[in-house]
Amino acid sequence: MGDEIADSTLVKKVQGGDKKAFDLLVIKYQNRLVNLVSRYVRDVTDAQDIAQEAFLKAYRALPNFRGDSAFYTWLYRIAINTAKNHVASRSRRPQEVQPIGPDDETFDIDDALKETDTPENLLLTDEIQRTILQAIEELPDDLRLAITLREVEGLSYDEIAETMMCPIGTVRSRIFRAREAIDIRLKPLLE
Amino acid sequence: MSEDKMERISALVDGELGSRERNIAIDSIEVDPETRRSWQRYHIIGDTMRNTLPASVRPDLATKLNEMLENEPTILVPKLKRWPKNKFKEFTKPLGGLAIAASVAAMAMIGLQNSEQQTLNPEGGIAEIAANGSQSAPIDENITSSPMAESPIINVIPSTVRTVKYEPVKNTLEAKRLNPYIMNHNQVNSRMGVQWVSPYARLVGHETNR
Amino acid sequence: MMVAIFSANVNATEISSPTSEGLARNILEKMSSATHKLNYDGVFVYSRGNQLDSMRIIHKVGEQGEIERLISLTGANREVVKNNKDVTCIYSDNQTVMVNKGGSNKFLASNLPESIARISAYYHFRVLGEDRVVGRATDIIEIMPKDDYRYTYHFWVDRETHLMLKSTIVNMQGKTLETVLFTQIDFPHEITNDVMTPMNTTNYSWHTNEEKQNLTSQDESQWEIQWLPDGFTMESTNEQFFAEKKQPLEHLVYSDGLATVSLYIEKIDKDKQPMNGYVSLGAVNAYTAPKEGFQVTVVGELPAISVHKIASSVTRKSTDHNKKVLP
Fold this sequence. Notes:
The complex is a heterotrimer.
Chain A: H1 2-15, H2 19-37, H3 44-61, H4 71-92, H5 109-114, E1 123-124, H6 125-137, H7 141-151, H8 157-164, H9 168-190
Helix pairs in contact in A: 1-2, 2-3, 2-4, 3-4, 6-9, 7-9, 8-9
Chain B: H1 3-13, H2 19-31, H3 33-49, E1 56-57, H4 61-69, H5 98-110, H6 124-134, H7 173-192, H8 198-208
Chain C: H1 18-37, E1 40-48, E2 51-62, E3 65-72, E4 78-82, E5 86-91, E6 96-101, H2 113-120, E7 123-133, E8 136-145, E9 152-158, E10 164-170, E11 176-186, H3 193-196, E12 205-210, E13 223-225, E14 233-240, E15 249-255, E16 260-267, E17 277-281, E18 284-291, E19 294-300, H4 304-312, E20 314-316
Parallel strand pairs in C: 6-12
Antiparallel strand pairs in C: 1-2, 1-11, 2-3, 3-4, 4-5, 5-6, 7-8, 8-9, 9-10, 10-11, 13-20, 14-15, 15-16, 16-19, 17-18, 18-19
Helix pairs in contact in C: 1-2
């Protein structure tokens, strides 16, 4: 799928030394990954941290990634594995906090990030969803259908063009205008 | 911000750019923080529509990760490997008949299983799985033992066909208001008997979801 | 095109060959017959998305015809009891019983071989192979639509009794939307009455719902659907009240013999905001939108595109049409 070709371009860039390309992949998949991990751990902060750890592991393993499976499938497996390990180790770990110092061999992501994890860093999904869904409601029919077919049904521009009986350029433009209209409402929430 | 540029970013989200435009779009995100934020928001829109947002969103997760990556070595993999060409071409259109069956079987060959069935060792193990996946193993060897994956042909979820993980769009504003219609439809359907137990099952599940 | 490697029984070149299609049809006919003629008692799980539920189904054939009891095993305790005359739903969570009267016999279309013939005009049948479900040997039958507006069904049919033991509904992209899977199945020679006795409903409030069929054909409705996938015909139309509505809704049901789709039309309540949107739940999609002061809602086991297209094609007939329906 077009999606994977874009992912493979990014992966190749990372493999070619472009760290920033990895950032694009992280942004693309972070929510889905945290959502996935949340099924394994209750704590919201833990889920975020595990997802972050999974991304880091993925980055480190990237030299070995050969593109035989989709990048997300591969990332997904790493995340599940990381989550399971976390759950397993949590149940064995004693309750007291381990001191972390420069001599400490193990880099514990959880502890390192805890200080920066104040509630203000987290935005409630409820409000975001409500805003977005409301904006989608108010879209003109053709824009709403186009973006729904794309984002929910997962159709390609080609397929959407066939379904809506319009040129591909129109599909691309409609989806873009739908996103723009929604973004006007979403942007203030995130800045 | 130029319309053209943003439309290109939108098309990049959908993976619908040719390689030239794709590279331009990627560069523009890397270079401009504003564009990067748009890239992020566009994905939040999609995640919302597919209901794959976590309970809370952490806007700076990627930024924090970038900081961590600064301490990581830069990867340089020699450009010997070629991505398999045309691998995804078969899956770009809704397929019918033999073509669907063939591609589903083909994906089983590539080893794209319902990934929850597999556990791996991190790092070292990953390359192995990838390698195994690319060999043409007969379907039977890919049978996993979970009850839901008994049939290797049918239950192979072709996750490469649509990397978008399909989640029911349950919390649209209309979901609640449409509930009674859906329930009524399932009730009528259950009396018709054509689909046997499925309409009942939909009813039972539907109610408990509210 | 890639070469498909299937399990031993199916040859990739056999797709919809006369023998495979014929064999599949034969098995399907036996399957639909078995559903009605056998005594069975089983437990199945139903899965869609993240949801997983299980139910028990007990089916008894006797002198009065068929009696069926479905019991929810997850979530709130609920039951449905079905017989030749009515369908009774018992909800323990809000202590109500709802009885739906009205000749359900008429609709047991799956009983007849004709219904399989009907489906064959719009779907391809194929035997995909064999598999084991709940420890029993089954044949996998695929029913795949000839167009892009429907879903594909797979049935795992028990070799011995021809009862369906597993089924999936799959979309055109190959994604499984819903699964029904039996985890226990028994074929008792006799099913005693106490097994069929529903739960205690003392102190429950009873509601009886008679479906009034006061519209016998689409000609009498003031609305018409301009587009439906090939082969969909109207199964019923009636007037309904539900969800505390002040006005009745017009409810038209269409089917191609396998998938069903409902169309609901009602006058928009001036105090309420019109609805506009999609909902997708497994294989069921719904779309609703206002049209000329009326709310048009389409719900069915069809992809979102189809449901949208059907809804968009609903138009009001010209006003000089003689009607006795909703204002």
